[in-house]
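Hello K.,

You asked for the raw outputs rather than the summary table, so here they are, unedited. I folded two proteins back to back in the same session to keep the settings identical. This is the first:
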Amino acid sequence: MTLMTNDVRLRGGPFDGTSYTDVDAGLLELESDGLIHRYIATSTTEGAAPVYQFDGTVSPDGGMAGTENPRERLASPLADEIAAEGEKR
């Protein structure tokens, strides 16, 4: 596989071992099966590609029952965007 300039490798979570293209932020959020999976940049590389480590999963409504209080969660830009789209409908 030939890596593009902004390709990264994902470690852990549901996307473990995959490459993702055109990443230039410290936080990568991917939506799958109605959940948001967060990956954060590390100082590790695999070949020429930076490694992003799985950081957890959140629901677009802000939390998951029994694991966290949605009102006290850290910001998730993708969750906020999805919530805003839902309010427009």
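The second followed immediately with the same parameters:
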Amino acid sequence: MLENVNVLLFDFTRENLDEHEEAKVNLTSGKNVLEDLIQFEDGEFCESPFVQCIQIPTDDPYNQIPDEQMSDILGIEKNNLLYYRIFISSFKKSYSFTHGYLDEGAKDIKILANKKMIEENFPIFEIRYKVGEKWSSWQAIAGKFIVAHDYRFGPGGVREVYSSITEREISIIKQNFQIRYSGNTVNEILEPNTLYRIINDPFDSVIRKIIDPSTFQILFDSQLIQEVSSEKSFVIWRKFEERYR
């Protein structure tokens, strides 16, 4: 029997933003825009230019949707499909040492994105997710991406297997998930192993950030220390801390 699996499809590509200049103003304000983007009216999802609730047909009893199908929705090659992970910073004490490590959070949702999203999109957004009472760090995301619900009738965490996302689950996501505009990546030819830099922070243009290539975490650009006085770099760092702690 053919069934539909509902997922959320976000489109933050530069082309889509440029097509909706009026709505783009709020989207790039730097505040959390998820509440504005996702609305329901009489139980029906209100589509916006930047997020849609789409139905993906499947006749598999476990709601399996092949990666090829998800890649097609995002308009990318299958080998560029990324199961995007959100990380929670944690600390463990061992004897006289405290060890920091990253634990994967957001295990009830799946985010599928393009591995090349940062290099192909100059508008950069950032997301974070709350697990229990703890928020993850802000992490970079860009372009088109899918937010789906993990399979609820089994152990979960299985690739290509999903549950349909409902209005109730979307309301929970809105409480635990935040999205805001971060800025633009520097438009220049980058050498191999060069970190991507984000400029034009919407709250303060002096803040400059880099993206951790392995976790997509937003980090302070310490290169500023070499470019400005120590007093000024400390002021900029404090502004970064206030926004990202």
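The helical segments are 14-19, 21-27, 34-37, 67-74, 117-120, 167-176, 224-227, 230-244.

Happy to rerun anything if the numbers look odd on your end.

Regards,
P.
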